[in-house]
Specification:
The chain is mostly helical. It folds into 3 domains: 113 residues, no CATH class; 133 residues, no CATH class; 92 residues. The protein contains 15 helices and no strands. Helix 8 packs antiparallel against helix 9 and helix 11 packs across helix 12. The radius of gyration is 37 Å and the shape is elongated.
Length: 406
Amino acid sequence: MKKTINDLYEEACDLKEIARTDINNTGTYVEAANTFNKAAGVLSKEIETEKDVKNQLIKMAFSSYYFYEETSCLSALNYQNQDINSTRRYIQKGQKWLNTAISSIEKIIGNCELNESELIKFRSHKALWEYLQKNDSVFENAAIAKEAWKNENFLDSLDYYRLAAEKSKELISTVEKLVNDDHIDPKYLRIASGNYIGMMTNVSSCLAQINYQKALKSTDQKQVNKLCKILLSYLLDAYRSANNAYEINPEWQQYLDGCIVMENNIKVFLQDNLNNWSNIYEENHSDKELLKFMKQVNRKAINKIEIEKKLIDFPIVKYWSIGSFYVLLFLTIVGSVYFLVTNIASFWKFIISIVAIETLFLIIGVFILRSTGLLSEVNFFKVIKLALENQFRIIRSKTKDDEKGQ
């Protein structure tokens, strides 16, 4: 039985979907492209014998769209095979077919007599095709970025991925409106949202590579440490973006592959910077995902760092480590004062020494509170001032009482 144009179109769409969602089945793109070509060819021949203007325009619009779908399959295939020049050539060829399709449908809407259902249908087709035009513009920028990445030109790759990400973000709002107006399938919103986050994953990957290359070339250790810190942050950003992209569009295997690649990159970075884990932990101790990776790389090392951190933060240990210095200082002062008192026989000097010891003891206590973070800088000076004022107020009161007694 001879297949109808609709049969050919539906078969081609099924084949394209198989190839799109399974990277191990990309060869099916060729079969899909050939089937789209057959459907377009049948319609193109019918145009020659069609006398009705409206039907001519309809067949022109859909034959052009089917030819576009053929080029779309071939551009996707070449992109997977990393033949970027062929990818761009098919994208640009497809844009011309879409222009023809949209132009024909605009003539149908503007010049032909249509009932309500026909008008809705043709407007929906026009909306979808205009979306595909914008999406292909994103795709072409991503293809250029991929070629630059392949050639290790990471700055150019960054520029084009950023451009693709910006266009992807704008496209989301367009798709939302089209979905809400029932012009296109909701799956396009999922795809557009996943594409945007996927592009942001690539942006973070480029930034990570740029900082990695700089760190390799730098001879300044401080600069290297700073670049490594930045590198780790971009690796984590890329990992999280890939995860988010996969959550939004789980049918796209490349997002899951990206998660695995980014996770491996983070672990390699951690393994290469094992000596710097104390600083990494200090700056990222609240990042549960990073701590998980650190434990997977070297559980003993991270456990040791965590124990040391807990000991330092434990109040008794913290107070002892800080207070021991002040205790030593206090004993030194007391010893010095005792030496002076025992060698200089003077009652008033002895009294002054006792007062000095007591005042110093108060000030040392304030210093301990300030060092442990329990006292702000402003309150620190207020407490010292208050301690001194009260100390000398007591001395003055004692002197006055003595005078009265006499």
